[in-house]
Inverse folding.
């Protein structure tokens, strides 16, 4: 087996007195699809931010391993932020920030917009797009970067069922290109459909890390089992 | 009432007759305040963006100081610049006291805190929404701040209009460092102050109406620029 793309070794994250993540051990290999599940406040978003490097470890380590070059990481946020610019200009900014040359920026932007079905809206103000279209634009930005690792923070949380299906099929298409996926979700059906592995977090601790079939079919610890049944009491 | 009506008609006549002295005063006012705003914008936006993204001990004190300077009296700025530029001052050898350059310096100092404080707040609020995403795309904190200024460019334009309004409407600083020299450093506000002290209230009021008109035209020009942009719909509401 090839060496992992990213390793967290006993990683913890503190925000002042609050320990958001505690002693997390996690390895990610190329092409893997990992779903993070857990109650609100269990540390899913913090774990995604740690995997990206947006927050540092307060203890432990985060190690990224590329084949020569540093792996490219892209992240899709729950509520994508679009600049008050056109759809194409939003993409252009994302590519410019990664230092891509002008000609390549144009080619990649056109290709990414075509893939997410927004080529007809390229000149429209991005803030006029619907929630689902803005999420597609965010996916186009991530896709255009050709990432090794794509992090998705509840990518379909506030979308209607048809927009959810569209986004899921786009995520599937990106993953089929060999991109490693890590996705937090409250939608267990989505985790079942898209993931190979499921990680269950509870109060900042990684409690379970199982292949998707085992997670949904085997006997789980009581709290995880309650979560699956939607019976987790309010904390 | 008669004074107000007389002033209004006098203002109209001054404009219609294209009074040369008036237009010289208006031109100088626009040149001085416009240049001061351009300089103040460069310094103010940079300072405001930096204060929004910087994290260091003492930042709170600096922001407190900046916000306090929002109430900086223009006469105090005039006095400080006067002390700097007067013959005995450290910049006395430059010999620019009682010139439009001195007025530009004073007005620049006056508008920097305003632009910096308001743009800092604008960037801070936008960072809350989009900071993480921009950082995840590889933007450094200062670059993210600059992109968010672009994102909020219509709000920035409003900040700049406010700064221009403060600059062109102030009288204390330009009076002290300009000296209100006829044909050289006389701007609209100093002319109004002079005419009032001479008791020529209709002319003073007429100049006031012209001053408001000039600012109104600048505002209209900015609105026209915004209206032409399909991305500015929110900004006009």
């Amino acid at each position: 087996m090839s060496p992992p793309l990213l390793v967290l070794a006993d990683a913890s994250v503190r925000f002042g007195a609050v320990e958001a993540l505690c002693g997390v051990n996690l390895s990610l290999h190329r092409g893997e699809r990992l779903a993070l599940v857990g109650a609100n406040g269990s540390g899913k978003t913090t774990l995604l931010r740690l995997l990206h490097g947006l927050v540092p470890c307060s203890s432990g380590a985060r190690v990224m391993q590329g084949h020569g070059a540093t792996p490219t990481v892209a992240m899709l946020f729950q509520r994508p932020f679009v600049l008050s610019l056109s759809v194409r200009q939003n993409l252009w900014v994302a590519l410019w920030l990664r230092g891509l040359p002008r000609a390549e920026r144009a080619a990649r932007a056109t290709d990414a917009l075509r893939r997410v079905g927004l080529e007809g809206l390229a000149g429209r103000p991005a803030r006029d797009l619907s929630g689902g279209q803005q999420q597609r634009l965010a996916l186009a930005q991530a896709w255009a970067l050709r990432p090794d690792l794509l992090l998705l923070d509840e990518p379909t949380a506030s979308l209607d069922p048809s927009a959810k299906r569209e986004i899921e099929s786009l995520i599937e298409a990106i993953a089929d290109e060999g991109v490693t996926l890590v996705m937090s979700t409250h939608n267990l059906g989505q985790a079942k459909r898209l993931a190979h592995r499921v990680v269950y977090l509870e109060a900042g601790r990684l409690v379970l890390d199982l292949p998707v079939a085992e997670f949904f079919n085997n006997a789980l610890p009581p709290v995880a089992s309650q979560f699956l049944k939607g019976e987790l009491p309010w904390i | 009432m008669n004074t107000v009506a007389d002033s209004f008609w006098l203002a109209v006549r001054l404009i219609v007759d294209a009074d040369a002295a008036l237009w010289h005063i208006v031109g100088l006012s626009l040149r001085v305040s416009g240049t001061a705003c351009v300089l103040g914008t460069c310094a103010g936006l940079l300072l405001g963006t930096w204060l929004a993204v910087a994290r260091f001990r003492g930042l709170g004190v600096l922001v407190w100081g900046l916000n306090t300077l929002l109430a900086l009296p223009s006469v105090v700025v005039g006095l400080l610049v006067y002390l700097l530029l007067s013959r005995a001052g450290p910049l006395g050898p430059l010999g620019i006291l009682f010139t439009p350059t001195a007025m530009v310096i004073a007005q620049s100092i006056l508008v920097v805190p305003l632009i910096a404080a308001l743009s800092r707040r604008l960037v801070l609020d936008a960072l809350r929404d989009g900071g993480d995403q921009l950082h995840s795309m590889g933007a450094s904190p200062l670059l993210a701040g600059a992109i968010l200024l672009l994102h909020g460019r219509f709000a920035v334009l409003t900040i700049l209009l406010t700064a221009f309004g403060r600059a062109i409407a102030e009288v204390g600083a330009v009076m002290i460092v300009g000296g209100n020299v006829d044909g050289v450093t006389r701007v609209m506000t100093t002319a109004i102050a002079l005419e009032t002290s001479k008791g020529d209230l209709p002319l003073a009021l007429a100049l006031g109406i012209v001053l408001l008109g000039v600012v109104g035209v600048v505002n209209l020009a900015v609105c026209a620029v915004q209206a032409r942009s399909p991305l500015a719909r929110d900004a006009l509401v």
Notes: Chain B touches chain A at residues 129-130, 132-139, 143, 147, 150-154, 230-231, 233-234 (CB under 8 Å). Chain B has a mean pLDDT of 92. The CA atoms of residues 99 and 184 of chain B lie 7 Å apart.
